[in-house]
Amino acid sequence: MSFFKKAVATIMLSSLLTLSFSSCSNNSKAPGSTAAISEVNTQEPANTDKNSESAESDKPKALEPNRPLFTDIFFADPSAHVFNDKLYIYPSHDIDSGIQPNNDGDQYAMEDYHVLSIDDFNSACIDNGQALHLKDVPWAKRQMWAPDAAYKNNMYYLYFPAKDKEDIFRIGVATSTSPTGPFKPEKSYIERSFSMDPAVFTDDDNKSYMYFGGLWGGQLEKWKTGEYDSNGTAPQGSEPALGPIVASMSDDMLSFKEAPQEVSIVDENGNPILASDEDRRFFEGAWVHKYNDNYYLSYSTGTTHYIVYAMSKNPKGPFTYKGKILNPVKGWTTHHSIVQFKGKWYLFYHDASLSGVDHKRSIMYTELSYNSDGTIKPVN
Ligand code: FUB
Which end of the chain has a smaller Cβ tally under 10 Å, C or N? Predict the structure, then answer.
């Protein structure tokens, strides 16, 4: 289904669903103002005893799982990380672009990034305001899509895709001494970077890797030859599907140490996942995490709207397909991250049920757990 058809379907479905969400206060802040605190997505205290009402209202409210963390500003593509025991979310900031939906995703015309933070799930989610704007990135022209962040060398790094002046997706980096920014962008994009959806994983040995790439609007299929080919098409039928791309990061985290290479995703027999296998093949939104010495590559299947995963003993793969994590959400896109926080594992994801518009999405979270063999229990 095209972006456009799905958008129409989503609007009809979600106008009903929207009614089931509670109202909320504005959580955004204008650049330069103090951080705003979310008062949305809170569970009402069950106690109705009048004498305990004031004590109840003094209690911190809990952030409820599977409900939008914000309801009057739209964030998507949540990349969650824990820095110094605090949870930070690096999302896209969705806006009303007024651009007609198309399969290249031109309607996803985002212009800036905010950083969100959570002390624990019994306190509010804070929007720390604008951390980087398109106008401050010398090489970028439009579409600030799904970002990610990393910490190393006493510095925070914000990695972000955007189209350059030739309308080719590249990946940029910006730095800050604070996890919430403001971030100062490098003058040019990361050399040899292309396509979108960067995700940076740092291993126990302190080596960092960037995973990236996405089909269609993400242009991955236009790089099959190693050069940009505006007529490049995705593999079809029984051809092996394209995998995401990985590159080791240099020690300064500002460039690639080596030429980026494709990650292989294979089935249980060791055969490449095929292009026709749309329930399992990689589309966009790669994320890598480690649990008990296994590396997990999770990603969106795009056209079939699943979040699925594959496992490996090596951060560069090959990864063996294992199963689904998340069923299709409301809206065309699905995008996630997986993070360990205070001893538990969480999946952060988004949907478009609140707005009814595919490119105005809301982020949420749910707890994640593993089976004893290391496979991930699908989210209900
Ligand atoms: O937010 C724009 C794009 O939509 C992201 O880069 C994709 O992963 C999809 O979520």
Answer: C
Q: Which residues, at least 6 apart from 163, have a Cβ–Cβ distance to it below 8 Å?
A: 140, 141, 142, 143, 169, 170
- 318: cis peptide before it, omega within 30°? yes
- Ligand 1 pocket mutation, candidates 215, 333, 350, 351, criterion most atoms within 8 A of CB: 333
113 lines ligand 1 (CB under 6 A): no
What are 303-355's pLDDT values in tens digits?
Answer: 999 999 999 999 999 999 999 999 999 999 999 999 999 999 999 999 999 99
Residue 199 Cβ < 6 Å to ligand 1: no
The one catalytic residue in 94, 127, 221, 284 is 284
Task: Strand 265-266: give its sheet, edge to edge.
Answer: 265-266, 319-326, 307-312, 294-300, 284-291
Q: Is 162 in the pocket of ligand 1 (CB under 6 A)?
A: no
Peptide bond into 182 cis (omega under 30): yes
CA 298 to chain centre: 11
Cα distance between residue 294 and residue 311, in whole Å: 7
d(CA 101, CA 332): 11
User: CB of 76 within 8 A of CB of 333?
Assistant: yes
pLDDT digits (tens, 9 = 90+) for 145-181: 999 999 999 999 999 999 999 999 999 999 999 999 9
* Mutation to probe ligand 1, out of 196, 306, 363 (largest number of atoms < 8 A from CB): 196
- Its pTM stands at 0.88
Q: Whose alpha carbon is nearest atom 8 of ligand 1?
A: 285
d(CA 309, CA 327): 12
- Whether 350 is in the pocket of ligand 1, judged by its Cβ within 6 Å, is no
Please indicate whether residue 77 is annotated as part of the active site.
yes
Whether residue 347 contacts residue 326, with contact meaning beta carbons closer than 8 Å, is answered with yes
Q: Is the CB of 77 under 6 A from ligand 1?
A: yes
